[in-house]
Design the sequence.
């Protein structure tokens, strides 16, 4: 596989990077939203783990910090169908989703999604600077570690 990549001309290499990143974004979205559903259904116990974070670290070799982050993002994102859809289609990057979640409410989802779709991450950060953060936090970290029955 490495030999194939090193043999690409500049145009094909650039296209490969763009295509791969778009695909990575879509797959990461599917993983994160699937993980949030897994957590909501309390399935970790059915798979030999006391909680979702432990399951992720054991079965998917994720660092605890990454597991907490993905689970937190997925849990929050479940409330915002428009943003979740744009993440699933690869129109929004993980970085933009994380940034948006700090400010999203049901009332401003459409507005912030449109802003995110029209701007780069750096521009979006600037546009949201000084804007009030949403108070609707997801379940506290303890909820991710509680025994799931």
Sequence:
């Amino acid at each position: 596989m490495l030999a194939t990549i090193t043999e690409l001309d500049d145009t094909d290499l650039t296209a490969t990077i763009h295509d791969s990143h778009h695909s990575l974004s879509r797959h990461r979205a599917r993983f994160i939203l699937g993980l949030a559903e897994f957590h909501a259904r309390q399935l970790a116990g059915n798979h030999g783990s006391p909680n979702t974070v432990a399951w992720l670290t054991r079965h998917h070799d994720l660092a605890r910090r990454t597991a907490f982050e993905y689970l937190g993002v997925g849990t929050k994102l479940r409330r915002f169908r428009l943003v979740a859809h744009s993440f699933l289609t690869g129109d929004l990057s993980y970085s933009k989703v994380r940034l948006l979640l700090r400010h999203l409410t049901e009332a401003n989802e459409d507005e912030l999604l449109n802003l995110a779709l029209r701007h780069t991450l750096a521009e979006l950060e600037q546009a949201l600077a000084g804007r009030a953060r949403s108070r609707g936090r997801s379940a506290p970290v303890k909820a991710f570690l509680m025994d799931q029955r």
